[in-house]
Design goal:
The complex is a heterodimer of chains A (about 300) and B (about 300).
Chain A lengths: L6 H29 L2 E2 L6 E2 L7 H10 L4 H8 L1 H34 L2 H16 L2 H12 L4 H8 L13 H26 L3 H8 L4 H29 L3 H5 L8 H11 L3 H34 L1
Antiparallel strand pairs in A: 1-2
Helix pairs in contact in A: 1-13, 3-13, 4-8, 4-10, 5-8, 8-10, 9-10, 10-13, 12-13
Chain B lengths: L7 H23 L17 H8 L1 H34 L6 H13 L2 H14 L6 H24 L4 H9 L4 H30 L2 H6 L7 H9 L5 H64 L1
Helix pairs in contact in B: 2-11, 3-6, 3-8, 3-10, 4-6, 6-8, 7-8, 8-11
The chains are: A mainly alpha (about 300), B mainly alpha (about 300).
Amino acid sequence: MKNNVNWGRVALIAIPFLWLFFLFLLPFGSVIKMSLSDMATARPPYTPVFNSEEGIIGLWTLISEFDLENYLLLTEDELYWRSYFSSLKIATLSTIFTLLIGFPIAYGMAKTPSQWRATLVMLIILPFWTSFLIRVYAWIGILKQEGLLNNALIYFGIIDQPLVILNTDIAVYIGIVYSYLPFMVLPLYATLEKIDYSLLEAALDLGCSQFKTFWVIVVPLALPGIIAGCFLVFIPAMGEFVIPDLLGGSSTLMIGKTLWGEFFNNRDWPVSSAVAVILLMLLIVPIVLFQKMQEKELKEQGQ
Amino acid sequence: MNINRFSWFNITSLTLGFAFLYIPILLLIVFSFNKSKLVTVWGGFSTKWYSSLFQNEAFMDAALMTLKVGVVSATFATILGTLAALVITRAGFFRGRTLFAGMIYAPLVMPEVITGLSLLLLFVAIGWDRGFWTITVAHITFSMCYVAVVVSSRLVTFDESLEEAALDLGCTKFSAFFQVTLPIIAPSIAAAWLLAFTLSLDDLVIASFASGPGATTLPMKIYSQVRLGLKPEINALSTILIVIVSIGVITASIVTKRATMKKRFYEQQANAQTALHRCSNSIFKRYYNNCPKGGT
């Protein structure tokens, strides 16, 4: 073992490490601190404010003024409970819908003759590069009462009265499934492409039904992709703001929207911080699992 | 019954899937050329919304701001993200490695409202005036993680013996990286830059938290307009953005494809040369072994 420190290696590790530490990890500390503070009608809009001139005593007064009031509010006011619960429901259901729609697409891509696959992958990625906001905006024109979907359905005589879709939860589900579909299809395709499809023939030859073959062979082999896709949809969908705000109605409760409202409309920084802390606590387990999977996948790629 | 054939079921699901992905975007583009002010009723062809867009100074200012933030943040994110990718794939074990990996992967799925809020509170706590630089720093922070993922997935498949050869030939580690590794991974770094740039171009939530008075990015402008209702100018603007991004992505994918084809070509050549080398070696050896026998 060498005694002299390899400064190049230290610098290589330190630069990105310190950047992320100070700008990603440390800010969570300020969210926690803020969630313990009280709202004030001043600039900055919260108390207590740390006054460096008072030194240690200032720090002590600062700490002694912290309380859990905001968290108590979150348990008392049912708006927050309902927001968390409704986010959980919307995120879970739309993850399932995305999986159900994404799986046949990824499966079809894996079965496509190999010279076409690269093009199909690019066609899946392309909408993901196109602005999220613009893609959500496009759905407003389609779903609204005098929108393109209703016009088309009335024109073909399928319905007489326009359907009310925009500003309901249905529009939110459509928006999430549409926006997050590439995140589901890509990991699914990556695992489905690697499956040795002669296994399916073997199973069929041995008397398995088509459905059972699919269930017993394809699904277990595709499981890593299914799990990765579900994480990639579920975690960001839980905190989604743009989709429920633009497509959902006033009755659509999602925690990202509630947080945004507390922050920008009510200017209540402490309560929105408490909302963020609870959301983070709900998501910490899926995020850690996701990270473990990513690292494992990277290792497997290298082998 | 052959289950492995590309079946009608596969064709149908692909057609429906891609229709679902593309019809909304295509409709948006079509209605940007609509003469009528109603965004959902066709009133004839016109490009007037494009000219009214270019005359709208607020939009143009926001567009300029967005481009500046995008270029600066993508460039810094690419540098930092590449360093992070090197740390993940090459630095081996160090104390805090798990934490480091966590800080790389967590921002990928972290809800934007949390990232945005936490950065804002940091900026307020250190008394940094919000504006161009706070948005840029916020964008660097989350897009460097995407860069790290893209570049590290290229680095793990990188043949390290090339770099070792350069070191054996007297290169320093530094110049071996710049002269050997970097040119080879350059296509994925370019792709990562493009990804970072579009992420920055696209971001509404984090920019809204990180910006202050006077610094409005295009997504923030679009959002405030969309809340008031549909506007044909927004369709025109969206069309321009979609076209720019599509050209960028398609060019990038062609460049990467060419690069891999080139790489394959060189590898084939290298393999051929190695084979030739081995061949001639063995002939030489045979000759050398046989000669003395023949001589005696």
